[in-house]
Amino acid sequence: MSANKESWGSRVGLILAMAGNAVGLGNFLRFPVQAVQNGGGAFIIPYLVCFLVMGIPLLWIEWSMGRFGGRFGNHSTPYIVDTMGKHRLWKYIGVFGIWTNIAVAAYYCYLESWTLSYVFHSILGTFNGLDQEGVASFFDTYVSIGDSTLGIPYEAVVFYILCLLLNTWILSKGLSGGVERVAKIGMPLLIVFGMFLAYKGFTIKAGEAGASFDSAVGLNFLWTPDYTQLWSPTVWLAAAGQIFFTLSVGMGTIHCYASYVRSKDDIALNAMSAGWMNEFVEVVLGASILIPISIGYLGIDRVQELVQQGGLGLAFKTLPFLFTQWGEVLGAIAGVMWFGLLFFAGITSSLAMGTPWIGFLQDEFNWKRKPAAWSFGLIVLILGMPTVLFFHYGVFDEYDYWAGTVSLVVFALVETILFAWVFGMDRGWREINSGADIKVPDIYKFIIKFVTPVLLLWVFIGSLVTPKGGDWGKALSGDWVLDDSSIINKIKNSSLKRQLAEATDPAIIEQLQETLFFVNASRILLISVFLGIAALVYMAYKKRVREGRI
Amino acid sequence: MNTSALVVMLGTMLLVTGLMIYFFMRVLNAPPKPEPDSYLDNDDDPDRQATP
Questions:
Q1: Could you list the residue ranges that cross the membrane (chain A) (predicted)?
Q2: Is the pLDDT of residue B49 over 80?
Q3: Pairwise CA distance, residues A66 & A286, whole Å
């Protein structure tokens, strides 16, 4: 018998935990950058269309798969998918739903630890008196492990371990006593902090507190629609990708949370409520902070330059400097709110990443909650240390790409086919509607069966063979040169190898060779973890056979 | 702000906020289901006990 006797405390708690799982740093850092790079206000059209035909169906699929598996005492994807498909290989496909979480948690907790550290630095006034270069170099110093900014040796490592200990301790308290309690505190605080910063983002006036431009300049930049972009497959691919990552689908966390819901209780309305809560945080709050504030102080040209490096640079290297322009006290408050908001966004997601592994050990090997939680912390620490120690060698990015990007698309595609075509759409539809507190529109039966899998296949193929510069017109006319961001060229390390071939400076050549080594080593490590989990699934299968459960 | 940006921004924000509030209110106002249900906090709620 499974040692798993977990339960949610309340329905609102479950929705906040699910919304917290979806709301992550990407809501504040990735969405606005994607929007400005893909048609400004026009981006919202493909974005919302993808939410309706891919995001919502995937939420319903994962919630119902989870609840269905939970009925048979399964709380992690290997045996959740095993209950839905007859073939013995399905459970190994389900390994993705544990592996992704462990691998993502390994680098995500490091990111989360930066936010925790920056909350302290905002309180201590570390950024006061620094110019923009100073704040940017502070970040570089922080992630260079040997240096310290607080006088604490190996500061980044210390904060990473602190963050991991906090996550593990909360996980050891259980679903209702730990995860749900954090969501009930973290999500309302996140929204309050976000609303305060959004208000600041909307009320910047040129000439006041060092600002060079009104908020309107940044908001125009972000929201002015460029409708010509609507015909670009790259923009639709970016929108589909953003919907994908923002909802935390294809990870196995939603399945795990939903597996603790009984079949007579609603999932259809719960999924909609949590999904739209995530959209509110992303579209309303996420769009109102990073870009308007940055442009208010730095102007469009500079921000365009900075967004090429992604939202992380703006968040950690630029905003702390801009907050100091509001005065010492308000600057500190804004810093605490910004990094506090990111911390809550991060921790509610990283906690979700721990639950599939814990559920698996409880279900299959009768582990108690506490040792299972601490084993998660230990594995994440071991797997995460390379991202901390070799951050400058691309280990962090490698984990993010394979576990946090490619794996999600693959698993979501496979689970959608499983749900709609193997398990069967009629049974799947009954699962979605069982105990539902809303009427699910019938059109979704068609969307889930045909539209969502095709869209996911398109996202996957689009990522596998992305043409150079995203120029699909040129590619389809016969001149198909792969971009360095395509999965195929990533596997071949094309970008690194070209840089290596072009480099002449021995120091740069050495750096690139080391990076290539660490990139390949990261992949071997990630594959080893996947195989290790698959071996555990096999052991669990053998145990089930011995116990007569199969 | 220019008109098109303002229309897109306000339209999107009002739509998303409205739907978020609508679905959350539906959750809060959903009729309670009899015990045993999935949630611990209402286990002793007299209104939710299944009638024999």
A1: 12-29, 41-61, 89-108, 152-170, 182-199, 235-260, 280-300, 329-352, 373-395, 401-425, 446-465, 521-541
A2: no
A3: 29
